[in-house]
Amino acid sequence: MKSIVFIAAPAAGKGTQSEQLSKKYKLPHISTGDLLRDSANDNSELSIKIRQIMENGELISDELVTKLLVERLKKSDCKEGYILDGFPRSLEQALLYEELLGKKPNYVILLEIDKDTAMKRSVGRLSCPNCHSIFNTLLSELKPINENICDHCNTTLIKRKDDNIESFEHRYQTYLNTTLKVVDYYEKQGNLYRIDSSKSKEETIAKIYEVIDSRHYD
Ligand code: AMP
Questions:
Q1: How far is the CA of 123 from the centre of ligand 1 (A)?
Q2: Residue-wise pLDDT tens for the chain (218 aa)?
Q3: Residue pair 96/185 in contact by the 8 Å Cβ criterion
Q4: CA 162, CA 140: separation in Å to the nearest integer?
Q5: Euclidean distance between CA atoms 39 and 47, whole angstroms
Q6: Which of 57, 85, 138, 157 suits a disulfide with 31, CB 3.0-4.6 Å?
Q7: What one-character DSSP code corresponds to residue 190?
Q8: Residue 50 alpha carbon to ligand 1 centre in Å
Q9: pTM of the model
């Protein structure tokens, strides 16, 4: 069983690196942001409220996020492990993870990046609403082959509503004020690995593979 958790500032590359790991280790990539976007896709009052909170770059309640996550982790494709992108985002969520699953994640990967680079990645980002692949109009290595079309499933790409400067600022502050406490928590427990994510995605993934392959869990 391999449970891999990504922690990072917004747009630091969690989604891109999780996709790569998912292919290499044949484990599902579970993004709480995607679970929320998929669950809030109608015009009900709750969906509208969820979308508003996300567009403002604020956090959704622990109750809703953990409910969606636990349902997803019960599926059979998670038996051998999973790659978790976007959870836990607060100390409370790290404690809930242990309470609900009865264990800690095996590997917690912290992707480190400076704020300006993360902001550029956010502002240029395009996402596939179908297969959740990520592209970027400002970075040549991440440009889609055909403008606005997903390379993998031919779906029209979308720009997330929270990929603007104001929302980025808000999400970045939440990261500093709330998510960094999770980093301290795991660092003290010895399962946190710091990876420089400001270089190319190939350099970053190579360093992540080294970490994952250096330790084995049953
Ligand atoms: P992401 O796709 O990881 O960038 O997340 C997009 C947005 O989804 C965040 O800005 C939050 O509004 C919400 N979100 C994702 N994961 C969580 C979480 N673990 N707890 C609370 N809100 C979350």
A1: 17
A2: 899 999 999 999 999 899 999 999 999 999 999 999 999 999 999 999 999 999 988 999 999 999 999 999 999 999 999 999 999 999 999 999 999 999 999 999 999 999 999 998 999 999 998 988 889 998 888 899 999 999 999 999 999 889 999 999 999 999 999 999 999 999 999 999 999 999 888 999 999 999 999 987 75
A3: no
A4: 22
A5: 7
A6: 85
A7: T
A8: 10
A9: 0.90
- The DSSP output letter for 4 is E
With the most atoms of ligand 1 within 8 angstroms of its CB, the residue from 14, 52, 59, 123 to mutate is: 59
The identity of residue 157, as a single letter, is: L
57 lines ligand 1 (CB under 6 A): yes
The tokens describing 157, both together, are 């790409």
Ligand 1: which residue has its CA nearest to atom 19? 87
Helices (H), 86-194: 91-101, 115-123, 165-174, 180-189
- Of 134, 81, 133, which is closest to residue 107 (Cα–Cα)? 81
State the distance from the centre of ligand 1 to the C-alpha of 52, rounded, in angstroms.
12
Task: Just list the catalytic residues.
Answer: 14, 89, 125, 160, 171
The protein residue whose alpha carbon is closest to atom 12 in ligand 1 is: 54
